Structures are given as structure tokens and as C-alpha cells.
Amino acid sequence: MIKLSPSILSADFSNLSKDIKAVENVGVELLHIDVMDGHFVPNITIGPLVLDSIKDKTSLPLDVHLMIEKPDNYISKFAEAGADLLTVHVEACTHLHRTIQNIKSHGVKVGVSLNPATPLNTIEEVLHELDMVLIMSVNPGFGGQKFIESSLKKISKLKRMIDESGKNIDIEVDGGVKVDNVSKIIKAGANVIVAGSAVFGGNSIKDNVLAFKEKFKE
Ligand code: DX5
Ligand code: ZN
């Protein structure tokens, strides 16, 4: 089953609960929360306080994408604020194995993300520990960027690695995903689709989500 995880980065931040209700009402599976610190990526977004408020407004599982340096310092805060899944960047973790155990110790699902230039062999030794791998298909920091085509090969390669491991690990893809390229992303092996501007942009959030759902049926 393919899951949609709309990224609230492109939502109306002055009216977040309205936009969150809109995606929840059409029936999405997760809610993607982009946390940026202005160091790991050149943008600043939201922290645990806002996550805590979002948690009160929705029953959707919160898929929290940490684009921050030294994530270990904040894992307990995001877990307490209500994250259901915490994804850290391999590039931000000196002791990735330790960070993964740290996330697990909070009873939260664990994901690891790779920037476009980061090879898959950086997660080879920890793959079996993960619930999800997040392949960035843009350089993180902003919504509305163009999908990097070479990500497709990387997704297929990761799918093979996961199949060989015999584990049940989700493949999430984030960045530049649109209704007209999502089919090839799924075909490559992704089963969790993040979309920000393609969900919250345009006229109707509902129609945007439904258009993705149509593609998921193919
Ligand atoms: C980018 C973020 C994404 C972003 C995707 O750094 O991680 O989640 O919101 O936005 P779109 O779907 O517009 O590329
Ligand atoms: Zn993201």
C-alpha cells in the first residue's frame, strides 16, 4: 500500500489546523513535519513547541523529518511533543548507530535520510535497525524545488538492498514529487510519498490529494 505524507512546509502557517484538517478529511496516512535549524539547511522552520500543538489537532501519525545538526540533543523533546516517527540525516550523525538507539529508546519509529549526494552504503550497516529510509530527491531546505532524476536509480537500488535484507522497511521519497512524476517514483520502489507544494499549492487541497490517490491505484 502506498502512503501519502503531505509536508506542511507549504501549508498556511497562520492557519495550520485548517490545512491539516483538509488533508486529514480526504484521508492521508501520515503528516510530514519538516524541522529545519538554519545550520544543517539554510532555512528555519518549526520546533517541538509547534509539534506539540499540532499533535492536539490531528490524529494522523506525525512523520517528523529532522534537518538539524546534533539531532541527539533534541530527540527526547520531539518524542515527548508527539512524533510517531523521527527521521535523522545520516550527514548530521557522527554516531548514527547511537542516534538510532536513542530514537528507539523513546518508543518512536526510526528513519534515516540521505541527501542526494550521499551514497546508500552509508546506511548499509544499520539498515536492519530501521523502520524507514528517506531518500531526498532535492537538496533539503525548501519546498517547491525540482525533482532530481538520478534519485530514481537510487530508490531502485535501495529497494533491492531492502529486499535482500528480508526486512520490512519503508522507502520514503521527499522533494519535487508531483502528480505527474509520482508513478515512476512508486515504480522504482517508494511506498511513502511526501508532497508539499503539490498538496498545499493550487486551488484545492482536496483535489490535489485525490489526484495523488488516483495515481496510487495504478
Ligand atoms: C525539503 C523538505 C520537503 C519539502 C518538499 O527540504 O524536506 O519535505 O516540503 O516540498 P515539495 O514537495 O514542494 O518539493
Ligand atoms: Zn521533508
From TrEMBL:
Cellular component aspect of the GO annotation: cytoplasm
Catalytic activity: D-ribulose 5-phosphate = D-xylulose 5-phosphate
Gene3D superfamilies reported for this sequence: Aldolase class I
Domain of life: Bacteria
Annotated metabolic or biological route of this protein: Carbohydrate degradation
Binding positions for a divalent metal cation per the UniProt entry: H32, D34, H65, D174
Swiss-Prot/TrEMBL GO biological process terms: pentose catabolic process; pentose-phosphate shunt
Cofactor descriptive note: Binds 1 divalent metal cation per subunit.
EC number: 5.1.3.1
Binding site for substrate: S7, H65, G141, F142, G143, G144, D174, G175, G176, G196, S197
InterPro entries per record: Aldolase_TIM, Ribul_P_3_epim, Ribul_P_3_epim-like, RibuloseP-bd_barrel
GO terms for MF: D-ribulose-phosphate 3-epimerase activity; metal ion binding
Cofactors, names only: Fe(2+); Zn(2+); Mn(2+); Co(2+)
Residues the record marks as active site: D34, D174
Annotated keywords: Carbohydrate metabolism, Cobalt, Isomerase, Manganese, Metal-binding, Zinc
Top EC class, one word: isomerase
Protein purpose: Catalyzes the reversible epimerization of D-ribulose 5-phosphate to D-xylulose 5-phosphate.
Family: Belongs to the ribulose-phosphate 3-epimerase family.
Record protein name field: Ribulose-phosphate 3-epimerase
Gene encoding the protein: rpe
